[in-house]
Amino acid sequence: MVQDPLRAGFGERLAAGVAERGPLCVGIDPHPSLLHAWGLDETPGSVERFAMTAVEALAGEVAVLKPQSAFFECYGSAGVAVLERVMREAQSAGALVLLDVKRGDIGSTMTAYAMAYLDEHSPVSADAITVSPYLGYGSLAPAIGIAEQNGRGVFVLARTSNPEGAGLQQSVHGSGDSIAQSIVDSAAESNRGKAPLGHVGVVAGATIPPGELDFSSLNGPILAPGLGAQGATLKDLKAVFGRALPNVLPTTSRDVLRHGPNGLREAATRIKHDLALMLNP
Ligand SMILES: O=c1ccn([C@@H]2O[C@H](COP(=O)(O)O)[C@@H](O)[C@H]2O)c(=O)[nH]1
After folding, report:
1. Which CATH entry fits the domain spanning 10-279: 3.20.20.70, 3.40.50.11030, 3.90.226.10, 3.40.50.11600?
2. From the CA of 25, how far away is ligand 1's center (Å)?
3. How far apart (Å, rounded) are the C-alpha atoms in residues 90 and 235?
């Protein structure tokens, strides 16, 4: 399913994946509590078993898999080596890999992050990564540029799903817009004129109040975490994203992984099915 990133833009590759498999993105978060629930210990070997089981169950089923880098990095180089294998296997099995790594820095360092995660020759090359705009949206320019050259994407944190995000992200900017809205609008600028979708997505939680953000000009994908363990439901997606719903990638990690090695594929399939019914009643 994954098209050649050097021939097709990320928006095009994502649209093709979603058309074939639906928009659900499943997170691969080898959280210690999940490792224990699966009867595994907190070692790189167990993390590999956990994550590869998730890849085998899901990489042929969903359009996007989202490994959470932190849960691999905490094991040092052994954990990062597992992450590299997980990413390659997921891509070989046909899924796009969105690495949740939330990088953000001054432009010169941002270039190095982009080379690490968005260059085809890197061992941790993802199809897209999450990035943080809190050093200024402009500081992300190297990542946005390198992603585009390599047929890859970035998802910029706009309005995160956690309750602590609201204070900062809802605060009003000089223009009269919230910081979150100004990030959505900056991403819209980066995506202007791109078809079928630009390569700059935003992250906006399924947990945020309905109608808080206007996505009408975005022309890019919206990663929506918060389903399941953080309390949001599929019904919330409709209320929060309204007409932007066709461009939303709802994502959940624990709500699928908690079903264990033998139940996670069925859990993901059920959510996919319910999502499809909601999108096409
Ligand atoms: O706003 C955000 C951005 C990222 N996340 C990440 O998504 C998953 C959510 O896991 P669940 O088990 O489905 O709650 C996790 O890796 C977060 O770091 C987010 O939750 N909110």
Report:
1. 3.20.20.70
2. 11
3. 29
